[in-house]
Write a structure and sequence with these properties.
The complex is a heterodimer of chains A (666) and B (173). Helices cover 46% and strands 11% of the residues of chain A. Chain A contains 28 helices and 19 strands. In chain A, helix 3 packs antiparallel against helix 8, helix 5 packs antiparallel against helix 6 and helix 22 packs across helix 27. The longest helix of chain A is centred in the first third of the chain and has 28 residues. The longest helix of chain B has 21 residues. With 173 residues, chain B is mainly alpha-helical. Helix content of chain B is 64%, strand content 0%. The chains are: A alpha/beta (666), B mainly alpha (173). At the A-B interface, helix 1, helix 2, helix 3, helix 4 and helix 5 of A face helix 1, helix 2, helix 3, helix 4 and helix 5 of B.
């Protein structure tokens, strides 16, 4: 059995990049050898003078179809290890028509133009330049095209299913159509330009018979699509259609579907957690009720054949057994959750930035919406109307992960946990596999100012020593100071790291929920981290802050305790604050929760910050004394509440006070 | 040997070239788990260009924004570079490498330039809409017998044949 890069979630690794480069090389070489390094030859197909495009393209399609059918059909390459593009008919019809016009006009398509540029064709260069612009236009127009383009979560459809034919029969018919197209192409070429050299040739006869024979051989294969059919992600379908889907999905329900139904406030749904009460108490799916297995029949009697009962546990064995038992008792409406709680946590609660596969913007929105809903600790509103009428808070929470989610990922080499607590705490107990890191090692004296976040290269060196490379998933774990995690998050942002998140509630909540701990030190093999130079667009210095003073719409937030802001207390050269700044002590964003200090509910924070900052795109500068506590305000504003232009004045009051030329407010 | 007098080798038999291309596609599916693609890499380059011009705007935009701060770290970008390199190797070794703007003898360079540019814009735009181009959508998806890919192939030929008459001037000798 072949394990592909896609199948093992590693298309984003250097090894996959290298493989793609090699395969691309082969692709380009063949395109050029076929004559597709010439726009004149490509354009020939539209004037019936040179049908090479049809011959090459359909030969390739048929050969690949036969090859893939065999690999998948014989079980050598599992279907779900292969990426299948979803079908969005309207987008593919409209896109195809525009593409065709552009193809005839430019006489290139993207792949042939790249090969053509390799062959020195300047019109290919111009065409590619145009295509770059076309991509930018699409991005700019995307808000208007969203409906047409589809959400990216449409189902995968196979043409033989759409036509209601058996796969083998369609493949055979398709092969015959292609062979017919070859002969027609040769005939057309002979008529129009006197070429068509393969017309009636021994070669084309042998080739035609060979393709058709292999296609006949496909009838002997079992239906290969079993593995791929379930790949289509859950979609938002109307209620009736959804019910029908559930009915036909025999005995289980996918996490995405369950999530979307809960979010939609589906009142017919009864989500039952069959784990022991103490496990249920530590964490469960929002909206779920706890019923021990032995009590299922009596407690669910009122739901017998009314609505839908979904059973779940950590895995799938117990719920499946419970479901069968219920069915024997006459329940025809019991289902169990595919992949259990662990699967739910992995598939629903993984933030977009920690997912391997590319995610479309629409899918990203849906993921954020589901995370927002299921990470909300408040009980579920009873009626669907309550959900709809609830104040809509735009909270992303993209950079926060649940302890339960992290627990499900332990032992996966791609997740690196950085434990920011003091060394003795780490030594006595830590999350298995986590690495100790002191945030102070990320700071130092820069330009005379103490405790400034180090430059990207220095940070990259530290990450390298921790065995972290740019593709790693980093989860930041704090002890009693959430701002340790947010400062480390800023360090990651400075080097341009994409995949990181803060553990909600930190280590105390991890312990409280009863997840595993360890005292052993993990093995680390140093990695090579190359910082991206332009990543830090958020740090501002005292000159930039001064330039922003008095500018309309700019909000300067001082997150130090009130007495320091007022100047009643001071540990610095001068007392007071930056003129025009607003005081919002960082402690106001925290609350006692789950055994330790954590961020307060996002909805409350959103409401309070709305009163301080005029809009999500307003310019905000946050500072404290040394930049440490301000990192927390930065994190909350940018990553939890979705403010887009948040700046961090690292030097803070420490630097400002020591520069006599800078004005002070009291 | 003087390269100007070197005679280009003839092209491969189109059916055998297609067979080789089909096998390359199977290889791509077996190794990467994804088909061949060209427009995906180009779109990543668009995002990088957009990032260079207006970083904040790009990061906040809905479509490109989803690709993060380093859009070029994507396998299709590398595949596209491979296509460029493979095309160059093939052209040089078969004496077909030639710096030229291909056009009909009676067509001005300016006209061909504009057609190529506009065609490029349309192709760059529409391949995002259709989630792929002739490589990723038509060929790779078609080989898996996907409905959308088959529909795309038909639409491309329909659009191409409908437009061909109006842009034929660029090939007149």
């Amino acid at each position: 059995m072949i394990d592909t890069f896609y199948g093992s979630d590693s298309l984003g690794t250097p090894a996959a990049f290298l493989a793609a480069l090699g395969i691309g090389g082969l692709f380009g070489f063949i395109l050029e050898r076929a004559g597709f390094g010439s726009s004149r030859k490509l354009a020939g197909v539209f004037y019936f003078r040179d049908m090479t495009v049809v011959k090459v393209m359909f030969s390739a399609m048929i050969v690949a179809m036969l090859g893939m059918s065999m690999l998948v059909g014989l079980g050598i390459l599992p279907g779900d290890h292969v990426f299948h593009l979803p079908t969005v008919l309207r987008a593919q019809v409209v896109g195809g028509l525009i593409f065709g016009v552009g193809f005839a006009m430019g006489a290139w398509c993207p792949g042939t133009a790249a090969a053509g540029l390799g062959a020195g064709r300047l019109d290919a260069l111009v065409f590619l330049g145009g295509a770059l612009l076309g991509g930018i236009f699409f991005n700019e127009a995307y808000p208007w095209l969203r409906g047409l383009a589809g959400s990216g979560s449409e189902p995968v459809r196979f043409v033989y299913e759409s036509l209601g034919l058996p796969r083998g029969a369609f493949a055979f018919l398709f092969t015959l159509v292609a062979v017919g197209a070859f002969w027609l192409s040769e005939w057309v070429e002979r008529r129009v330009s006197g070429t068509g050299e393969y017309w009636d040739s021994k070669f084309l006869k042998v080739f035609s018979i060979a393709l058709a024979s292999v296609a006949v051989g496909l009838f002997a294969l079992p239906d290969p699509e079993n593995g791929t059919a379930k790949e289509a992600p859950a979609e938002q379908v109307h209620e009736a259609a959804l019910l029908e889907t559930v009915e036909s999905a025999s005995d289980h329900i996918e996490p995405e579907e369950l999530a979307d139904r809960l979010i939609a406030g589906d009142a017919s749904l009864r989500v039952v957690d069959i784990r022991p009460p103490e496990e249920f108490a530590s964490s469960h799916i929002r909206g779920g009720v706890n019923i021990p297995m032995a009590r299922l029949p009596e407690d669910l009697a009122a739901w017998k054949n009314k609505g839908i009962i979904v059973l779940y546990s950590n895995g799938m064995t117990h719920p499946a057994q419970a479901r069968d038992s219920l069915q024997r008792l006459g329940f025809n409406n019991a289902y169990f959750l595919t992949d259990g709680l662990e699967g739910f946590s992995d598939r629903i609660l993984t933030p977009v930035s920690l997912r391997h596969d590319p995610v479309s913007p629409a899918e990203a929105r849906r993921i954020s919406e589901r995370r927002r809903f299921f990470m909300d600790p408040s009980p579920l509103p009873q009626a669907a109307a309550a959900v709809r009428n609830a104040p809509r808070v735009s909270v992303s929470g993209e950079r926060l992960v649940d302890p339960a989610w992290l627990a499900g990922r332990l032992g996966r080499g791609d997740t690196k946990m950085l434990d920011l607590r003091p060394q003795p705490d780490y030594n006595s107990n830590h999350i298995p596999g986590s690495l100790a890191l002191s945030v102070e090692s990320l700071r130092g004296n820069r330009g005379g100012v103490g405790s400034m976040l180090l430059p990207a290269e220095d940070l990259a060196r530290r990450l390298s020593a921790l065995g972290i490379d740019p593709s790693a998933f980093v989860v930041l774990v704090y002890g009693d100071k959430a701002y340790d995690a947010t400062l480390a998050a800023l360090a990651l942002e400075r080097v341009g790291h994409q995949k990181f998140a803060v553990l909600l509630g930190g280590f105390p909540r991890w312990i409280k929920e009863g997840h595993p701990v360890d005292t052993r030190l993990p093995d680390v093999s140093p990695a090579r981290y190359t910082a991206s130079q332009e990543a830090d667009g958020f740090t501002v210095d005292h000159r930039q802050v001064r330039g922003m003073l008095g500018r309309r719409g700019v909000v300067i937030l001082d997150v130090r305790p009130k007495e320091y802001f007022d100047g009643r207390k001071s540990d610095e050269a001068r007392s007071g604050h930056i003129p025009g700044a607003v005081n919002r002590p960082y402690t106001q964003d925290l609350a006692e929760a789950g055994g330790g200090k954590g961020f307060r509910p996002a909805a409350e924070l959103a409401e309070e910050y709305e009163k301080l900052i005029p809009g999500k795109d307003a310019e905000v500068v946050v500072y404290c004394r040394t930049g440490h506590q301000a990192s927390q305000a930065y994190f909350i504003l940018k990553h939890v509440l979705g403010y887009t232009r948040v700046r961090w004045y690292d030097g803070g009051w420490s630097e400002w006070a020591s520069r006599p030329e800078l004005p002070v407010g009291k | 040997m003087d390269k100007h007098t070197a005679v280009p080798q003839s092209h491969w038999n189109p059916y055998l070239a297609g067979t080789a291309l089909g096998l390359t596609l199977v290889l791509s599916y077996a190794v990467l788990g994804a088909g061949l693609g060209a427009s995906g890499g180009l779109a990543r380059a668009s995002a990088a260009l957009s990032c260079a011009i207006a970083p904040d705007h790009t990061r906040m935009s809905e479509y490109f924004g989803g690709w993060g701060g380093q859009p070029l770290r994507y396998y299709l970008v590398f595949m596209l570079l491979g296509v460029l390199g493979g095309g160059a190797v093939s052209a040089v070794t078969s004496d077909r490498f030639r710096l030229a703007l291909e056009r009909g003898g009676a067509c001005s360079a300016r006209k061909r330039f504009i057609f190529a540019l506009l065609g490029g814009v349309m192709v760059g735009f529409s391949s995002r809409l259709a989630q792929g181009c002739t490589s990723g959508q038509a060929l790779s998806g078609g080989a898996l017998l996907l409905t959308g890919s088959m529909v795309f192939v038909c639409a491309v030929f329909a659009g191409g044949y409908a437009a061909a008459y109006f842009v034929r001037g660029q090939w007149h000798d």
